[in-house]
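Minutes, project check-in

Agenda point 3 was the complex the collaborators sent over. CS summarized: two entities, 294 residues total, and the question is how they sit relative to each other. Sequences were read into the notes so everyone works from the same version.
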Amino acid sequence: MNDINSSNRIQTTQSHTAAEAAINEWRRTITKLDWNKLPELLDDNVAYRNPASFDALHGKDTLITILRVVFEVFENFTYLRHFSSDIGYVLEFSARVGDENLFGVDLIEFDENGKITDLMVMIRPASVALTLATEVGKRLAASQTTE
Amino acid sequence: MNDINSSNRIQTTQSHTAAEAAINEWRRTITKLDWNKLPELLDDNVAYRNPASFDALHGKDTLITILRVVFEVFENFTYLRHFSSDIGYVLEFSARVGDENLFGVDLIEFDENGKITDLMVMIRPASVALTLATEVGKRLAASQTTE
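CS then shared the predicted structure for the full assembly.
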């Protein structure tokens, strides 16, 4: 966990310029909670694999709706280490949910146009992932009944 | 999640030859359950950050003891996507615990000698991470009382 700053450099190849630009825009968008910019980063049928369920959800609107609520619950969200491959990136983050601190990762894949096609999220400790899922589920249910 | 095979190539710089050799040896060792070879890959004070607890455990023997039990519980363990950075690697895996399938990641850091100094593991779904932690805890407790 040492030398976190040096890990923020992106290793990439020339063929991944679109993905590199997109991952930087993803980080900016999420960090600034700039939800209006998020749709243009996502493939229409983006898969979202959340920390609490096995099966993926699909679709841009679904993902954005959930992320907005997750970031209402998260406090002190910070991106940490950054890893890359030929097909995508892993971004580690830390955050707080209520009194509990967590670490998590976004595993992000892009298509050739730099659109995000797949987002898998994992969080530790697992108990905090479940606390988060419960709170997000409550808020989503409440927002649906008041619409 | 498409094109998993192409993600197995390692992106690295010349300064990371030791780490690259070590991550390949880590994959081989874990995949083959070659526990006798594992000590030489680890720093004596390696930090282990498991999926269920926030705090790290430290020490080579502690990590190996836990991993041996985890891999008694895991079935169908397979490494999937592979990501790299200047300071380490992320290896995604899938496995089964009882009737439940899971995805996980190893976030692995190396020192300049190619020894693993930090292993963080996250697993989704979170409920399966807790099932795993409970089962591993039981087995560790049972092995300590029979020693």
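Noted in discussion: Chain B touches chain A through 49 residues (CB under 8 Å).
Follow-up: revisit at the next meeting once the mutant set is ready.
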